Amino acid sequence: MLVQGKNYKTIWMEGSSVFMIEQNKLPFEFEIIECTTYQETCRAIKDMTVRGAGAIGAAAGYAMAQAYSAACSDKDTFIAKARFGIEATRPTARNLFYAVERVFYAGKISVENAFLEAGKIAEKDMNDTRAIGSFGNELIGNKANILTHCNAGWLAFVDFGTALSPVYTAFNQGKELFVYVDETRPRGQGARLTAWELNNAGIPHRIIADNAAAGLMVQGKIDLVIVGADRIAANGDTANKIGTLDRAILANYFNIPFYIAAPSSTFDFGCASGDKIIIEERSQDEVLFQEGMDENNQWHKIRVSSPGSTAYNPAFDVTPAQLITGIITEKGIIKSTKEAIESLFNSL
Ligand code: MRU
Protein backbone atom coordinates (compact mmCIF):
# COMPACT_ATOMS: atom_id res chain seq x y z
CA MET A 1 0.00 0.00 0.00
CA LEU A 2 1.07 3.58 -0.59
CA VAL A 3 2.56 5.61 2.24
CA GLN A 4 3.64 9.12 1.28
CA GLY A 5 3.65 8.05 -2.37
CA LYS A 6 5.85 4.98 -1.81
CA ASN A 7 4.66 1.39 -1.97
CA TYR A 8 5.20 -0.56 1.24
CA LYS A 9 4.45 -4.02 2.50
CA THR A 10 3.98 -4.48 6.25
CA ILE A 11 6.85 -6.96 6.40
CA TRP A 12 9.46 -8.29 3.98
CA MET A 13 12.81 -10.01 3.89
CA GLU A 14 16.12 -8.88 2.36
CA GLY A 15 18.99 -11.34 2.60
CA SER A 16 18.53 -12.87 6.04
CA SER A 17 17.11 -9.69 7.62
CA VAL A 18 13.43 -9.14 8.25
CA PHE A 19 12.16 -5.60 7.74
CA MET A 20 8.86 -4.43 9.16
CA ILE A 21 6.80 -1.35 9.86
CA GLU A 22 7.07 -0.49 13.58
CA GLN A 23 3.35 -0.60 14.43
CA ASN A 24 3.73 0.49 18.06
CA LYS A 25 4.77 3.94 16.82
CA LEU A 26 1.86 4.37 14.42
CA PRO A 27 -0.01 6.63 13.80
CA PHE A 28 2.53 9.13 15.13
CA GLU A 29 5.72 7.98 13.44
CA PHE A 30 6.34 5.81 10.39
CA GLU A 31 9.45 3.79 10.99
CA ILE A 32 10.93 0.63 9.47
CA ILE A 33 12.90 -1.68 11.71
CA GLU A 34 15.29 -4.49 10.82
CA CYS A 35 15.53 -7.81 12.67
CA THR A 36 18.75 -9.62 11.89
CA THR A 37 18.21 -12.74 14.01
CA TYR A 38 15.29 -15.04 14.76
CA GLN A 39 15.39 -13.86 18.38
CA GLU A 40 14.92 -10.24 17.28
CA THR A 41 12.03 -11.22 15.02
CA CYS A 42 10.45 -13.12 17.94
CA ARG A 43 10.76 -10.05 20.14
CA ALA A 44 9.06 -7.96 17.47
CA ILE A 45 6.12 -10.40 17.38
CA LYS A 46 5.86 -10.53 21.15
CA ASP A 47 5.97 -6.77 21.73
CA MET A 48 3.59 -6.22 18.79
CA THR A 49 5.98 -4.23 16.63
CA VAL A 50 4.42 -6.55 14.05
CA ARG A 51 0.87 -7.73 14.77
CA GLY A 52 -2.25 -9.01 13.03
CA ALA A 53 -2.80 -12.60 11.93
CA GLY A 54 -1.12 -12.64 8.50
CA ALA A 55 1.75 -10.31 9.40
CA ILE A 56 2.51 -12.43 12.47
CA GLY A 57 2.42 -15.52 10.24
CA ALA A 58 4.86 -14.01 7.75
CA ALA A 59 7.14 -12.87 10.59
CA ALA A 60 7.07 -16.32 12.18
CA GLY A 61 7.92 -18.01 8.87
CA TYR A 62 10.83 -15.63 8.33
CA ALA A 63 11.99 -16.20 11.94
CA MET A 64 12.03 -19.96 11.40
CA ALA A 65 14.14 -19.47 8.24
CA GLN A 66 16.50 -17.15 10.16
CA ALA A 67 16.87 -19.88 12.79
CA TYR A 68 17.90 -22.38 10.10
CA SER A 69 20.52 -19.99 8.78
CA ALA A 70 21.94 -19.51 12.30
CA ALA A 71 22.01 -23.19 13.29
CA CYS A 72 25.48 -24.79 13.33
CA SER A 73 26.44 -27.62 15.68
CA ASP A 74 23.61 -29.63 17.28
CA LYS A 75 21.28 -28.26 14.63
CA ASP A 76 18.23 -30.30 15.67
CA THR A 77 18.25 -29.03 19.27
CA PHE A 78 18.78 -25.45 18.09
CA ILE A 79 15.90 -25.64 15.59
CA ALA A 80 13.55 -27.32 18.08
CA LYS A 81 14.30 -24.60 20.63
CA ALA A 82 13.80 -21.89 18.02
CA ARG A 83 10.47 -23.38 16.91
CA PHE A 84 9.29 -23.52 20.52
CA GLY A 85 10.39 -19.92 21.08
CA ILE A 86 8.62 -18.61 17.99
CA GLU A 87 5.41 -20.50 18.79
CA ALA A 88 5.41 -19.13 22.34
CA THR A 89 5.25 -15.50 21.20
CA ARG A 90 1.49 -15.24 20.38
CA PRO A 91 -0.55 -18.39 21.13
CA THR A 92 -3.91 -17.50 19.53
CA ALA A 93 -2.84 -16.52 16.00
CA ARG A 94 -3.25 -19.62 13.82
CA ASN A 95 -1.17 -18.17 10.96
CA LEU A 96 1.89 -18.21 13.19
CA PHE A 97 1.70 -21.98 13.73
CA TYR A 98 0.81 -22.59 10.09
CA ALA A 99 3.92 -20.69 8.91
CA VAL A 100 6.31 -22.13 11.48
CA GLU A 101 5.30 -25.69 10.63
CA ARG A 102 5.71 -25.17 6.89
CA VAL A 103 9.14 -23.57 7.20
CA PHE A 104 10.23 -26.08 9.85
CA TYR A 105 9.72 -28.96 7.37
CA ALA A 106 11.06 -27.00 4.39
CA GLY A 107 14.27 -26.27 6.30
CA LYS A 108 14.92 -29.97 6.81
CA ILE A 109 15.82 -30.07 3.09
CA SER A 110 18.09 -27.01 3.09
CA VAL A 111 18.42 -23.49 4.51
CA GLU A 112 17.68 -22.07 1.04
CA ASN A 113 14.48 -24.09 0.98
CA ALA A 114 13.45 -22.61 4.35
CA PHE A 115 13.88 -19.07 3.01
CA LEU A 116 12.05 -20.01 -0.18
CA GLU A 117 9.12 -21.39 1.80
CA ALA A 118 8.94 -18.33 4.06
CA GLY A 119 8.84 -16.15 0.95
CA LYS A 120 6.06 -18.30 -0.54
CA ILE A 121 3.97 -17.90 2.63
CA ALA A 122 4.27 -14.11 2.45
CA GLU A 123 3.45 -14.16 -1.28
CA LYS A 124 0.40 -16.36 -0.69
CA ASP A 125 -0.78 -14.03 2.07
CA MET A 126 -0.78 -11.15 -0.45
CA ASN A 127 -2.60 -13.13 -3.13
CA ASP A 128 -5.17 -14.45 -0.66
CA THR A 129 -5.96 -11.07 0.85
CA ARG A 130 -6.29 -9.51 -2.60
CA ALA A 131 -8.79 -12.25 -3.54
CA ILE A 132 -10.69 -11.65 -0.27
CA GLY A 133 -11.06 -8.04 -1.43
CA SER A 134 -12.72 -9.11 -4.69
CA PHE A 135 -15.13 -11.54 -3.04
CA GLY A 136 -15.96 -9.23 -0.16
CA ASN A 137 -16.57 -6.32 -2.51
CA GLU A 138 -19.73 -8.11 -3.67
CA LEU A 139 -21.22 -7.58 -0.21
CA ILE A 140 -20.71 -3.84 -0.26
CA GLY A 141 -23.48 -1.85 -1.85
CA ASN A 142 -23.16 1.76 -2.91
CA LYS A 143 -23.44 4.13 0.08
CA ALA A 144 -22.85 1.27 2.51
CA ASN A 145 -22.01 2.02 6.14
CA ILE A 146 -19.59 -0.58 7.43
CA LEU A 147 -18.48 -1.28 10.98
CA THR A 148 -15.12 -2.90 11.66
CA HIS A 149 -13.30 -3.88 14.85
CA CYS A 150 -9.57 -3.83 15.58
CA ASN A 151 -7.25 -3.69 12.59
CA ALA A 152 -7.61 -6.30 9.90
CA GLY A 153 -6.22 -4.01 7.23
CA TRP A 154 -2.96 -4.22 5.29
CA LEU A 155 -0.93 -3.62 8.47
CA ALA A 156 -2.29 -6.89 9.86
CA PHE A 157 -1.11 -8.83 6.78
CA VAL A 158 1.69 -8.56 4.28
CA ASP A 159 -0.55 -6.26 2.21
CA PHE A 160 -4.26 -5.48 1.48
CA GLY A 161 -5.71 -7.00 4.69
CA THR A 162 -8.85 -9.04 5.22
CA ALA A 163 -11.73 -7.01 6.70
CA LEU A 164 -10.47 -3.86 4.96
CA SER A 165 -9.52 -5.47 1.65
CA PRO A 166 -13.16 -5.46 0.41
CA VAL A 167 -13.41 -1.84 1.55
CA TYR A 168 -10.33 -0.90 -0.51
CA THR A 169 -11.64 -2.77 -3.55
CA ALA A 170 -15.12 -1.20 -3.31
CA PHE A 171 -13.68 2.28 -2.80
CA ASN A 172 -11.27 1.89 -5.72
CA GLN A 173 -14.19 0.86 -7.90
CA GLY A 174 -15.85 4.18 -7.12
CA LYS A 175 -18.44 3.02 -4.59
CA GLU A 176 -19.42 5.56 -1.97
CA LEU A 177 -18.94 4.06 1.47
CA PHE A 178 -18.38 5.00 5.07
CA VAL A 179 -16.48 3.04 7.72
CA TYR A 180 -17.16 3.22 11.45
CA VAL A 181 -13.99 2.19 13.24
CA ASP A 182 -14.22 0.70 16.72
CA GLU A 183 -11.56 2.22 18.91
CA THR A 184 -10.69 -1.32 20.15
CA ARG A 185 -9.51 -0.89 23.69
CA PRO A 186 -7.20 -1.68 25.32
CA ARG A 187 -4.49 -1.24 22.67
CA GLY A 188 -6.57 0.85 20.29
CA GLN A 189 -5.72 -0.94 17.03
CA GLY A 190 -8.88 0.58 15.50
CA ALA A 191 -8.28 4.16 16.60
CA ARG A 192 -4.57 4.02 15.83
CA LEU A 193 -4.04 1.63 12.93
CA THR A 194 -7.32 1.21 11.03
CA ALA A 195 -7.97 4.95 11.19
CA TRP A 196 -4.41 5.62 9.98
CA GLU A 197 -4.87 3.21 7.06
CA LEU A 198 -8.20 4.72 6.05
CA ASN A 199 -6.84 8.27 6.36
CA ASN A 200 -3.94 7.28 4.19
CA ALA A 201 -6.27 5.89 1.52
CA GLY A 202 -8.69 8.84 1.70
CA ILE A 203 -11.61 6.62 2.74
CA PRO A 204 -14.37 8.40 4.72
CA HIS A 205 -14.54 7.11 8.29
CA ARG A 206 -15.04 8.00 11.92
CA ILE A 207 -13.65 6.38 15.05
CA ILE A 208 -16.28 5.35 17.59
CA ALA A 209 -15.92 4.35 21.22
CA ASP A 210 -16.22 0.60 21.65
CA ASN A 211 -19.50 0.95 23.50
CA ALA A 212 -21.12 3.09 20.77
CA ALA A 213 -21.94 0.25 18.35
CA ALA A 214 -25.38 -0.63 19.73
CA GLY A 215 -26.45 3.02 19.62
CA LEU A 216 -25.47 3.29 15.96
CA MET A 217 -27.11 0.02 15.05
CA VAL A 218 -30.44 0.91 16.64
CA GLN A 219 -30.43 4.10 14.56
CA GLY A 220 -29.91 2.10 11.35
CA LYS A 221 -26.44 3.57 10.81
CA ILE A 222 -24.69 0.23 10.17
CA ASP A 223 -25.46 -1.89 7.09
CA LEU A 224 -22.72 -4.46 7.43
CA VAL A 225 -20.08 -5.61 9.92
CA ILE A 226 -16.78 -7.05 8.63
CA VAL A 227 -14.03 -8.15 11.00
CA GLY A 228 -10.92 -10.32 10.75
CA ALA A 229 -10.01 -13.54 12.52
CA ASP A 230 -7.07 -14.91 14.44
CA ARG A 231 -8.14 -18.54 14.44
CA ILE A 232 -11.21 -20.29 13.03
CA ALA A 233 -12.14 -23.70 14.41
CA ALA A 234 -13.40 -26.54 12.20
CA ASN A 235 -17.01 -25.80 13.17
CA GLY A 236 -16.74 -22.08 12.29
CA ASP A 237 -16.33 -20.68 15.82
CA THR A 238 -13.96 -17.74 15.40
CA ALA A 239 -11.41 -16.13 17.71
CA ASN A 240 -10.81 -12.47 17.03
CA LYS A 241 -9.87 -9.35 18.97
CA ILE A 242 -11.64 -8.96 22.30
CA GLY A 243 -14.93 -7.19 21.73
CA THR A 244 -15.74 -8.99 18.48
CA LEU A 245 -18.26 -11.22 20.24
CA ASP A 246 -20.19 -8.15 21.45
CA ARG A 247 -20.45 -6.86 17.85
CA ALA A 248 -21.64 -10.27 16.65
CA ILE A 249 -24.36 -10.47 19.31
CA LEU A 250 -25.46 -6.93 18.50
CA ALA A 251 -25.47 -7.52 14.75
CA ASN A 252 -27.52 -10.66 15.28
CA TYR A 253 -30.02 -8.82 17.48
CA PHE A 254 -30.41 -6.01 14.94
CA ASN A 255 -30.41 -8.35 11.94
CA ILE A 256 -27.28 -6.84 10.41
CA PRO A 257 -25.00 -9.11 8.33
CA PHE A 258 -21.88 -10.03 10.29
CA TYR A 259 -18.96 -11.32 8.20
CA ILE A 260 -15.55 -12.68 9.09
CA ALA A 261 -12.81 -12.15 6.49
CA ALA A 262 -9.88 -14.58 6.65
CA PRO A 263 -7.63 -16.67 4.42
CA SER A 264 -7.58 -20.47 4.67
CA SER A 265 -4.28 -20.17 6.61
CA THR A 266 -6.30 -18.83 9.57
CA PHE A 267 -8.49 -21.97 9.75
CA ASP A 268 -7.43 -24.55 12.28
CA PHE A 269 -8.91 -27.69 10.74
CA GLY A 270 -7.60 -29.74 13.66
CA CYS A 271 -9.42 -27.68 16.28
CA ALA A 272 -12.97 -28.97 16.63
CA SER A 273 -14.60 -25.94 18.25
CA GLY A 274 -13.96 -22.52 19.72
CA ASP A 275 -13.72 -23.65 23.34
CA LYS A 276 -10.42 -25.40 22.44
CA ILE A 277 -8.79 -22.17 21.25
CA ILE A 278 -6.11 -20.84 23.58
CA ILE A 279 -6.79 -17.20 24.39
CA GLU A 280 -3.73 -15.05 24.89
CA GLU A 281 -3.72 -13.01 28.09
CA ARG A 282 -1.63 -9.86 27.84
CA SER A 283 -0.12 -7.48 30.37
CA GLN A 284 -2.57 -5.67 32.63
CA ASP A 285 -0.66 -2.45 31.83
CA GLU A 286 -2.44 -2.36 28.46
CA VAL A 287 -5.70 -1.78 30.36
CA LEU A 288 -4.38 0.35 33.21
CA PHE A 289 -2.29 2.74 31.10
CA GLN A 290 -2.54 4.49 27.73
CA GLU A 291 0.36 5.59 25.57
CA GLY A 292 0.60 8.29 22.95
CA MET A 293 2.20 11.49 21.78
CA ASP A 294 1.46 15.04 22.82
CA GLU A 295 1.39 18.04 20.46
CA ASN A 296 5.15 18.53 21.00
CA ASN A 297 5.88 15.00 19.78
CA GLN A 298 6.74 13.79 23.27
CA TRP A 299 5.81 10.19 24.05
CA HIS A 300 3.83 9.61 27.27
CA LYS A 301 2.49 6.62 29.13
CA ILE A 302 -0.22 7.69 31.54
CA ARG A 303 -2.33 5.82 34.04
CA VAL A 304 -6.03 5.93 33.15
CA SER A 305 -7.32 3.78 35.98
CA SER A 306 -7.47 3.79 39.74
CA PRO A 307 -3.97 3.34 41.26
CA GLY A 308 -3.90 0.15 43.29
CA SER A 309 -6.42 -1.65 41.07
CA THR A 310 -5.34 -4.56 38.91
CA ALA A 311 -6.74 -5.55 35.50
CA TYR A 312 -7.57 -8.68 33.54
CA ASN A 313 -6.63 -8.50 29.85
CA PRO A 314 -7.70 -11.36 27.56
CA ALA A 315 -6.69 -10.32 24.04
CA PHE A 316 -9.34 -12.28 22.11
CA ASP A 317 -12.84 -13.70 22.40
CA VAL A 318 -14.59 -16.44 20.46
CA THR A 319 -17.70 -15.76 18.37
CA PRO A 320 -19.91 -18.85 17.97
CA ALA A 321 -20.42 -19.94 14.35
CA GLN A 322 -24.17 -19.40 14.47
CA LEU A 323 -23.69 -15.65 14.92
CA ILE A 324 -21.58 -15.41 11.74
CA THR A 325 -23.39 -14.70 8.46
CA GLY A 326 -20.47 -15.92 6.36
CA ILE A 327 -16.70 -16.11 6.03
CA ILE A 328 -14.98 -14.28 3.18
CA THR A 329 -12.03 -16.45 2.11
CA GLU A 330 -9.65 -16.40 -0.85
CA LYS A 331 -11.80 -19.17 -2.39
CA GLY A 332 -15.09 -17.33 -2.03
CA ILE A 333 -17.65 -16.57 0.66
CA ILE A 334 -18.55 -19.66 2.65
CA LYS A 335 -21.02 -20.46 5.40
CA SER A 336 -19.66 -20.79 8.92
CA THR A 337 -20.56 -24.48 9.09
CA LYS A 338 -18.51 -27.64 9.54
CA GLU A 339 -19.55 -28.88 6.06
CA ALA A 340 -18.55 -25.64 4.29
CA ILE A 341 -15.23 -25.56 6.15
CA GLU A 342 -14.56 -29.21 5.28
CA SER A 343 -15.12 -28.49 1.61
CA LEU A 344 -12.80 -25.46 1.85
CA PHE A 345 -10.17 -27.76 3.36
CA ASN A 346 -10.69 -30.32 0.57
CA SER A 347 -10.28 -27.63 -2.09
CA LEU A 348 -6.79 -26.61 -0.86
O1 MRU B 1 -3.44 -8.50 18.91
P1 MRU B 1 -3.37 -8.20 17.44
O2 MRU B 1 -3.38 -6.76 17.10
O3 MRU B 1 -2.30 -8.98 16.73
O4 MRU B 1 -4.76 -8.77 17.02
C1 MRU B 1 -4.99 -9.47 15.91
C2 MRU B 1 -5.85 -8.65 15.10
O5 MRU B 1 -5.33 -7.83 14.41
C3 MRU B 1 -7.29 -8.78 15.16
O6 MRU B 1 -7.82 -9.67 16.03
C4 MRU B 1 -7.80 -8.86 13.77
O7 MRU B 1 -9.12 -8.54 13.76
C5 MRU B 1 -7.60 -10.22 13.15
S1 MRU B 1 -6.06 -10.40 12.49
C6 MRU B 1 -6.16 -9.58 11.04
Residues in helices, as a percent range: 25-40%
Structural Rg: 19 Å
Number of strands: 18
What is the percentage of strand-forming residues? 15-25%
What small molecules does the structure contain? 5-S-methyl-1-O-phosphono-5-thio-D-ribulose
Write a concise synopsis of the structure shown.
The protein has 348 residues and is an alpha/beta fold. The chain contains eleven helices and 18 strands.
Protein traits:
four-stranded mixed β-sheet; 18 strands; Four Helix Bundle (Hemerythrin (Met), subunit A); 38% helix; single chain; binds 5-S-methyl-1-O-phosphono-5-thio-D-ribulose; 348 residues; seven-stranded mixed β-sheet; alpha/beta; Rossmann fold
Describe, in plain words, how this protein is organized in 3D.
The chain has two domains: 2-129, translation initiation factor eif-2b, domain 1 (Four Helix Bundle (Hemerythrin (Met), subunit A)), CATH 1.20.120; 135-346, Translation initiation factor eif-2b, domain 2 (Rossmann fold, 3-Layer(aba) Sandwich). The strands form five sheets. A seven-stranded mixed sheet has the order 8-7-6-9-12-17-18, with helices on both faces. Helix content is 38%, strand content 20%. With 348 residues, the chain is α/β, with parallel strands linked by helices. It binds 5-S-methyl-1-O-phosphono-5-thio-D-ribulose. The site of 5-S-methyl-1-O-phosphono-5-thio-D-ribulose (MRU) has 16 residues, from strand 11. Residues 51-53, 150-152, 156, 162, 189, 227-230, 240-241, 315 line the site of 5-S-methyl-1-O-phosphono-5-thio-D-ribulose.
